[in-house]
């Protein structure tokens, strides 16, 4: 993706030389600006800045949000699944160790990390540059305590683009599974792990054309997540719809083979 915005890259307070080097390198890579932490201005805090932390993960902060990488709910999902073998996502994607997954809406990457533990590879697509960079640097540098997370994080590739720009260029049957989890039309604001990303996220809706591309490029499954009252269910027909009445979150499944 081309980067028309000039971002500010800096470090946490009292940085070491490696942090400064990394912030400077990132600023060059993304054709943006490096600024010494002591010279950060109020306007930088307002517009947004990327902060290279001591562990080399990258935090994004602006006037509305502060986003840092964390494996988040993937840990709970993993523990639940390991004890009960019950998880709608893992079931609906029909996860196998050979499978490849295209996650079109990677967000904070929690589901990408969770899926990666059960498949060969996950390719994540994220349109928001701050989210993309925080997750990319998080997956590469976060000090994962659990062995499964260390391994899973290495199986994820990330692309910063809008899936609407790239779907048409992907060949037929390129991935076993195409997964899409757009921002809900009627979100559950209460304590959602997604509250932190609401200001930065992209709110695209799946068009008929997007849907047809998803079916074309998937070998086995297309899985789309939405809340019960989202318009997705009126727009498209699925082979299966599973989910929990309690949470109101459902997974629509197209079975290709
Ligand atoms: C509900 S969140 C996904 C959460 C994710 N499953 C997780 O585990 O963290 C939706 C994400 O998709 C991104 N998104 C929405 N429309 C997109 C598009 N057309 N292309 C790429 N990313 C998109 C949003 O910016 C947001 O980060």
TrEMBL record:
GO MF annotations in UniProt: rRNA (guanine-N2-)-methyltransferase activity
Domain of life the protein comes from: Bacteria
Pfam families: SAM_MT (PF04445)
Iron is among the record's keywords: no
Keyword list, A-Z: Methyltransferase, Transferase
Protein name, UniProt field: Class I SAM-dependent methyltransferase
Taxonomic path: Bacteria, Thermotogati, Thermotogota, Thermotogae, Petrotogales
């Amino acid at each position: 993706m081309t980067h028309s915005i000039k971002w500010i890259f800096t470090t946490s307070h009292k940085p070491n030389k490696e942090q400064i080097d990394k912030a400077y390198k990132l600023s060059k890579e993304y054709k943006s600006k490096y600024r010494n932490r002591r010279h950060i201005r109020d306007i930088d805090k307002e517009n947004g800045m990327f902060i290279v932390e001591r562990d080399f993960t990258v935090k994004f902060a602006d006037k509305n949000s502060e986003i840092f990488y964390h494996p988040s709910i993937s840990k709970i999902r993993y523990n639940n699944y390991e004890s009960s073998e019950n998880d709608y996502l893992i079931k609906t994607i029909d996860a196998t160790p050979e499978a490849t997954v295209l996650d079109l809406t990677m967000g904070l990457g929690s589901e990408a990390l969770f899926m990666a533990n059960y498949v060969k590879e996950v390719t994540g697509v994220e349109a928001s540059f701050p989210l993309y960079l925080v997750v990319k640097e998080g997956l590469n540098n976060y000090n994962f305590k659990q062995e499964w997370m260390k391994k899973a994080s290495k199986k994820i590739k990330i692309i910063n683009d809008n899936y609407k720009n790239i779907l048409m260029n992907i060949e037929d049957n390129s991935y076993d599974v195409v997964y899409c989890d757009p921002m809900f039309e009627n979100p559950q604001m209460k304590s959602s792990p997604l509250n932190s990303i609401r200001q930065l996220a992209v709110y695209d809706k799946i068009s008929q054309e997007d849907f047809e591309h998803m079916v074309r490029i998937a070998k086995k499954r297309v899985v789309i997540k939405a809340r019960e009252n989202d318009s997705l269910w009126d727009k498209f027909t699925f082979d299966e719809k599973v989910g929990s009445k309690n949470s109101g979150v459902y997974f629509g499944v197209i079975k290709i083979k």
